[in-house]
Amino acid sequence: MPFDNQRVDVSGVDDRRGRGRGASVALGGGGLGIVGVIVVILINVLGGGDASSLLSNGATSQGTGESAAALSDRCNTEGAIDRYEDCYVIKSYNEINEVWATQVDSYVAPRLVFFEQATGTGCGNASSEVGPFYCPADKSVYIDLGFLAALQEQFGAQGRYAETYIVAHEVGHHLQTLMGTEARVRAAQGSTGDAQALSIGVELQADCYAGAWSAQANRAGNFSITERELDQALNAAAAVGDDRIQQKTQGRVDPERWTHGSAAQRRQAFLTGYQAATGSACASFVP
Ligand SMILES: [Zn+2]
């Protein structure tokens, strides 16, 4: 996965790691995550061992208590994107913003917040167990890297490009906020709309945006991918399907409680965006 040679830009990053645990309260309304349920089994995984040992590729997340300048220096050393998980995620975030800035009028990048265990957000207090998520109220993507690694491990969403897909999905929610889709859907859910179908449509559209970005970044050569990495993204999209997660966490599949779509739907949504290589191909997911 060759990257372009632009510097890793940490200016949009809010690094809250190493600032204590905060209140461990689950996220309130408004947050849009990559998964539909609070993943109870992961709490056990994290409670029983050191989550950092689960980081893929033996990479470290580092960064605890580091200043922005130190983070920037570290992420811009030779090989840092391959070596450090956080630098890789920041590079992904940079490239995702770069593409959307060329296509969305007055695009403003979301903030990228790294936290551990729990943190306050514009959508209420959030604990890691909700998984990576986007908060429309403060236009920020929240990620606990240790928990992300555990999530990937637990659900078989392996590979680094799976992480890129997750960041791109969350930035997809940011696009929905910028373009008014989120407000429109929220209003429809509050009135006569089918709240579940709308929720699934919003999530599949975010997957589609992730695919559209992926194809564009690949073609432009800023974030080239191989077949193997495309597979990692497609597998990750399927791994966080509601049916897979329900089967894993409760031993049965209950479509009436789906919020994000099935494995097959999520995989297909990513592929729809990827094959079209344009965000406009994702419009039809949300009425
Ligand atoms: Zn989502």
Task: Provide structural commentary.
- There is one protein chain.
- This protein has one domain (13-285).
- The chain contains eleven helices and seven strands.
- The protein has helices spanning 40-48, 68-75, 80-83, 85-101, 145-155, 160-178, 181-190, 195-220, 227-239, 242-250, 263-276, and strands spanning 13-15, 32-33, 111-114, 118-121, 124-127, 133-135, 140-143.
- The strands form two sheets. A five-stranded mixed β-sheet has the order 1-3-7-6-2. It has a two-stranded antiparallel sheet with strand order 4-5.
- The site of zinc ion has 7 residues, from strand 2, helix 6 and helix 8.
Largest sheet descriptor? 5 strands, mixed
Please, how many helices? 11
Number of strands: 7
- Cofactors, ions, other ligands: zinc ion
Query: Could you name the ranges where pLDDT drops below 50 across 5 or more consecutive residues?
Result: 38-59
Oligomer: single chain
Class from helix and strand fractions:
alpha/beta
C-alpha Rg (nearest Å): 17 Å
- Average pLDDT taken over every residue: 85
Q: What would the keywords be for this entry?
A:
287 residues, alpha/beta, 5-stranded mixed sheet, two-stranded antiparallel ribbon, 11 helices, globular, binds zinc ion
Secondary structure elements and pairings:
Elements (H helix, E strand, L loop, with lengths): L12 E3 L16 E2 L6 H9 L19 H8 L4 H4 L1 H17 L9 E4 L3 E4 L2 E4 L5 E3 L4 E4 L1 H11 L4 H19 L2 H10 L4 H26 L6 H13 L2 H9 L12 H14 L11
Parallel strand pairs: 1-3, 3-7
Antiparallel strand pairs: 2-6, 4-5, 6-7
Helix pairs in contact: 4-6, 4-8, 6-8, 6-9, 7-8, 8-11, 9-11
Bound molecules: zinc ion (ZN).
The site of zinc ion has 7 residues, from strand 2, helix 6 and helix 8.
